[in-house]
């Protein structure tokens, strides 16, 4: 989302980011990230909405998504007040993340163009839009289907077990109903969908979304493929330590491991040790983002220490033995894209599947084998060549006349037209 803010600033627009308060107590890690981002984006105005009374406790259990959506929805009234307090006609558009449907409703009521932003990929959007049709009342739950392939238009066949965990639950559960209803509302709730991808990366998914709009979802708004959003990458006040370290390594010699804001924090100590041993035994250079495992407190399993103790989490002497050829970061690295296994391995051809993840533990030997495969084999060379080709295509997408630049300009033009229509009404 902050990369989108950079592009909007470059286009001459003022950007205001409205933030909600953490659920039930001060989230030190989140606050630190906000401070860091705010310091690096002096032209972006950050506004923290007032804390709501008695916020729900958001923990990663079976009801996590319900609690999270409840928390976000309670800020809708505060967001409404904040937008109303801004100078009349000054807000050109509201852009929210995929799970803030209430904020879209607030914008609509005020006559402000509303857009949903997906930091994932077009394949994910295509799956979400088709789920309500696939989830029929007479069909067994996805959990019961196990690894049965599901056929989504524009996406390689995907095992049912690979879908969002909340969607796998009993069709009669409240979580299931809320998720599917949210996906069903996407076409009617927004004036447009922004996706952090580019057309040549996901040709099949882009064509599928166009077909869905023409044939199956006539009310579906336009989709703007405006990625990769990297505009702020070169504007940081200081170069991140990992980038300086990478500059010192031989070309194409480093393996990068990062499992996203959720996956990074859900690894057990046992899994962290297996990864460490596999990386060490591979003999190759690596960059690894590590977050402390979830808390043992059953009431707060999603709590994490802000600054994990790497000596405590990783094998004895590991940090000394890998010094010079491995770099470990705590909590964060300047990444901007997360993609799922089916897309990376089967569609884009830029990844390999690691065995054992479905059983809950990837062994050290598997980590070592896949690192060696990527960096030592002919198949690994093919993967690296594909990554290089896509990197060039990504750069071309934002050049003058490139697909993403054209899509962004169309988004700006469409939003301005909608705003003008609302002002005349």
UniProtKB/TrEMBL annotation:
Keyword check for Transferase: yes
InterPro entries assigned to the protein according to its UniProt record, in alphabetical order: UDP-glycosyltransf_plant, UDP_glucos_trans
Keyword flag Transferase: yes
Signal sequence region: none
Keywords carried by this UniProt record: Transferase
GO molecular function: UDP-glucosyltransferase activity
Protein name: Uncharacterized protein
Taxonomic source organism: Miscanthus lutarioriparius
């Amino acid at each position: 989302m902050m990369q989108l803010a950079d592009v909007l600033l470059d286009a001459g627009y003022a950007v205001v980011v409205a933030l909600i308060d953490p659920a039930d107590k001060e989230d030190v890690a989140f606050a630190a990230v906000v401070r860091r981002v705010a310091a690096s984006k002096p032209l972006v105005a950050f506004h923290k909405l007032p804390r709501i009374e008695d916020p729900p406790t958001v923990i990663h259990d079976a009801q996590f998504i319900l609690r999270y959506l409840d928390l976000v929805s309670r800020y809708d009234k505060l967001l409404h007040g904040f937008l109303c307090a801004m100078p009349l006609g000054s807000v050109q558009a509201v852009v929210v993340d995929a799970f803030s449907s209430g904020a879209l409703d607030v914008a609509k009521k005020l006559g402000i163009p509303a857009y949903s932003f997906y930091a994932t990929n077009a394949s994910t959007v295509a799956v979400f839009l088709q789920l309500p049709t696939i989830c029929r009342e007479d069909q067994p739950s996805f959990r019961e289907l196990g690894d049965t392939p599901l056929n989504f238009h524009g996406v390689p066949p995907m095992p049912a077990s690979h879908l969002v965990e909340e969607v796998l639950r009993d069709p009669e559960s409240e979580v299931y109903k809320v998720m599917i209803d949210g996906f069903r509302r996407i076409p009617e709730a927004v004036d447009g969908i922004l996706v952090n991808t580019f057309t040549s990366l996901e040709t099949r998914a882009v064509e599928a979304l166009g077909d869905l709009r023409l044939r199956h979802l006539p009310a579906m708004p336009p989709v703007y493929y405006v990625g990769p959003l990297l505009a702020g990458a070169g504007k940081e006040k200081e170069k991140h330590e990992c980038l300086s370290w990478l500059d010192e390594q031989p070309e194409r010699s480093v393996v990068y491991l990062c499992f996203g804001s959720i996956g990074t924090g859900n690894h057990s100590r046992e899994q962290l040790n297996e990864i460490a041993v596999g990386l060490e035994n591979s003999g190759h250079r690596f960059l690894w983002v590590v977050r402390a495992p979830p808390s043992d407190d059953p009431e707060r399993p999603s709590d994490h220490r802000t600054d994990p103790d790497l000596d405590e989490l990783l094998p004895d002497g590991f940090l000394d033995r890998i010094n010079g050829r491995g770099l470990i970061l705590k909590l964060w690295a300047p990444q901007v894209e997360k993609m799922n296994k089916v897309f990376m391995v089967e569609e884009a051809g830029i990844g390999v599947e690691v065995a054992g993840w479905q059983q809950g533990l990837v062994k050290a030997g598997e980590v070592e084998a896949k690192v060696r495969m990527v960096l030592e084999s002919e198949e690994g060379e093919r993967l690296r060549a594909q990554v290089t080709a896509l990197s060039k295509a990504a750069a071309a997408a934002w050049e003058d006349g490139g697909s993403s630049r054209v899509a962004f300009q169309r988004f700006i033009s469409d939003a301005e037209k909608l705003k003008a229509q609302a002002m005349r009404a």
